[in-house]
Amino acid sequence: MSGGEGRVQRRPGRRVSPIRREQTGDDPHPIKLSDAQEDFRVAQARRASVLLDSPGFSAVIVATNGTMARMHTVHPATFVAFKRWLAGQPDRDPLKRRRDVLQADAVQVLLEQYLPPG
Q1: What does pTM read for this prediction?
Q2: Pairing with 82, which of 60, 73, 93, 95 sits 20 to 30 Å away (CA)?
Q3: How many CA atoms lie within 13 A of 17 on its CB side?
């Protein structure tokens, strides 16, 4: 796993940007996750508290090699709403906006097909 510009990269083309809610009071920013010099930093994100405070969601995932694991994340409906909000921000990079919309659309389809409302 390598870091760079606040991102974690497990494989080429697969990056994750760890986020946190916006700073309040005397919170340190940015947060380092360890004392290691090469450690990455967690970036503040507007409205990240929406994701961090959302209901949890847990599902078993299966890798292409058959390995299974339990993934804990935000509820997919919260993710969709956040990504749609993010894509609508006028100062958002146009390429990121397009990606946000595609991600929201993909998760919305999964929600409708596999997690229909009650």
Answers
A1: 0.71
A2: 60
A3: 8
